[in-house]
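Quick one: examine this chain and its backbone structure tokens and tell me how the chain folds. Here goes:
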Amino acid sequence: MIQDSLRNIKMGGKFTAELINDKTGEIEGKFFAKNVVLDVAYQAMAGGFIPAQATIIAVGTGSNTPLSSDVGLQTQIAQSGGTFERITDYSWKVIAYFETGQANGSLRELGAKNNTHFLNRALFKDDQDSPITIVKSSLQLLKVTMEFEIVRI
């Protein structure tokens, strides 16, 4: 059964976010976030959801610690469709851009989803793994890369 086989896999990944000056192309800040795979993603997989379909990146202002029991972002303010790139049969990345008119303000959380289900959730963190707020202005682009893999355990 599909549900039994889900017990033998581990899914996970990370986000990299870059604030980019819209005029010069200079990277003005680079941030990382390790994601928590949500229980709803595992439940949806039993019904046919394929994690690689999660090509929409969402950002928000929520600051609660991500838990596997979350069903999405705490406070989503914007989302952007990304491009999918396969790395191996069991790993891939999605790259999404938020333009100058999108997602401006204080951002604390992000996640990937398809039209129905969130796959994961994360908080932006600093080098000491402490949650941080990044501030995106209308003079910046935000590039988010999600790298994700499935490992058999």
